[in-house]
Amino acid sequence: MKEFDGLPLFAKVVELKSFAEAARQLQLPTTTVSRKIQQLEAELGGKLLNRTTRALSLTELGEQVLPKAMLIQDTIKELQTDAEAFANQPMGKLHISAPRSFCQHLLAPLLAEFRSLYPGIKLELEAANRIQDLTKSRVDFAFRIGELKDSSLIALPLTAVDYELTASKAYLDQNQAPKHPVDLIKHPSIRNHVDGYILPWQFSQANESYSHQADADLLSDDLDVSVTYTLANLGISYLPVSLTKRYLESGELITLLPNWDKLSPIAYLLYPNRKHLPQKAKLFIEFIKQRKSFFKDKLTYN
Questions:
Q1: Which SUPFAM superfamilies is this protein grouped with (predicted)?
Q2: d(CA 167, CA 253)
Q3: What are the phi and psi torsion angles at 102 (to 5°)?
Q4: Is residue 96 within 8 Å of 122, Cβ to Cβ?
Q5: By CB count within 10 A, which of 76, 144, 205, 298 is most buried?
């Protein structure tokens, strides 16, 4: 199949009336320009230019071909301009994934602020409690908490996420509070899972560690549902303080086993390792970096 890729070069030579000047502006050897024009003439089956030492003139075929060549040249220029604008201006769409509770309590206000700063960038937020493969999905960024399995991704650490073991005051009025993690077997447990994996309750103190993995009495993949169960006096839960802080401060929930250290996994912003990030992605990364203190304030219990 004939490609006629020399057409924009032909238009440039005619525009400048010189092979040498076209070569200079395009940063090509003059011999390359001459060879490309000869290839184009061979593809078209006739000469396009009459060339002398002093001047260039169009042949009859050249006069017929020139308008189409100029149209292609102009189209290429427009495409280059559009591509540069897309790469350098804050515009386009970002697809962001995060756990459901993360979206509601943290990201919604942040993304509203980001959108007000960059109205040309459209945002699609997916509340996904399942684990996604970013390299195979159309997700640009994902917020995740805990151990990372995909080392091909760039992981920007944001803050530790403090967990607390809690129960409602009303529940503890009717049930004796556990004094050791082993006592949890005596209480209904409100548990959470990710893709079917039930998250363990981990505790440590001095040289002792304990992981509570009993069957759940109430199981959900939504942390907010577990908060509701806990406030309804249905048992004991092990949840991020970002969800329980206000209830702990109001006295509706009580911290259990306060002398035992709980889980403090790291929250990350994840994105694929790409050589050339578009401007919209660079702006989002910088925006999140500047708000690490916001994540720390929300996800740790000071």
A1: Periplasmic binding protein-like II, Winged helix' DNA-binding domain
A2: 6
A3: -65, -40
A4: no
A5: 144
Q: What is the pLDDT of residues 152-171, one digit of tens each?
A: 788 999 999 999 999 999 99
Q: Is residue 14 part of a domain?
A: yes
Instruction: State how far the Cα of 9 lies from the Cα of 34, in Å rounded to an integer.
Output: 10
SS3 category, 97: strand
Residue 199, number of CB atoms within 10 A of its CB? 15
Residue with tokens 């939504």: 222
The token pair at 284 is: 């989002």
**Above 80 in pLDDT, residue 67?**
yes
**Residues facing 219 on adjacent strands:** 191
Query: b/e map of 25-36 (b: 16 or more CB within 10 Å)?
Result: eeeeeeeebeeb
Tell which residue, 165, 122, 157, has the closest CA to residue 140. Answer: 122
Q: Encoding tokens for residue 42?
A: 């061979």
- What would the DSSP string read from start to end of 236-277? EEEEEHHHHHHHHHHTSEEE-STTSB---PEEEEEEE--SS-
**CATH code: domain of residue 154:** 3.40.190.10
**How many Å apart are CA 76 and CA 146, to the nearest integer?**
47
The encoded tokens of residue 89 equal: 């201006």
Separation CA 135–CA 132 (nearest Å): 9
For residue 190, what pLDDT is reported?
Answer: 96
CA distance 207 to 257: 16
Range of the domain at 242: 163-255
DSSP 8-class letter at 216: P
Contact 288, 98 (CB under 8 A): no
Residue carrying the six token digits 């495409």: 79
Instruction: Give dist(CA 152, CA 271) in Å, integer.
Output: 9
* pLDDT 10s digits, 73-111: 888 888 888 777 666 667 889 999 998 888 888 899 999
